[in-house]
Amino acid sequence: MLKSRKKTTNNSPNNTSDLDKYLNTDIISFEDQEDFNILIWWKSHQHKYPVLSIIARDVLTVPVSTVASEAAFSAGGRVVSKKRCNLASDVIKAGICVKDWEIADKRMYDSIRETKMLTDMESLKLSRSSWMHDSSPSPPENND
């Protein structure tokens, strides 16, 4: 598939682009390497092709999860409706931020409320436990 071949070298000065340098290098065959990782190759060649290695990293990496991107598009769809399709980008960003802040505030409030409820339950449990121990009947006396 890929065979080693030498491209014609360009005798231009050092102001050649990363792309020109890359295109004028040998093509290397990786048929025998089952564990070849293109991201590692670009990382090891980032000094030689600084711009191309950044582009390769951005293009070749896969997001860990698509949830974040789906959530962003979903939020954008809620803010930009048919009636609001002419909003400026700053207004759209502000709307999404306000909604995120509102959700974060609700989560914080719910967390505080839950913590207080757990504290109250612990206090109730402790008070009930001490009440149970104080009011327990004493063992019968042995009058033999």
UniProtKB/TrEMBL annotation:
Pfam families (alphabetical): Dimer_Tnp_hAT
Domain HAT C-terminal dimerisation: 18-101
Coiled coil: none
InterPro entries: HATC_C_dom (IPR008906), RNaseH-like_sf (IPR012337)
Span of the signal peptide: none
PANTHER family in the record: BED FINGER-RELATED, OS03G0311250 PROTEIN
Protein name per UniProt: HAT C-terminal dimerisation domain-containing protein
UniProt lineage: Eukaryota, Viridiplantae, Streptophyta, Embryophyta, Tracheophyta
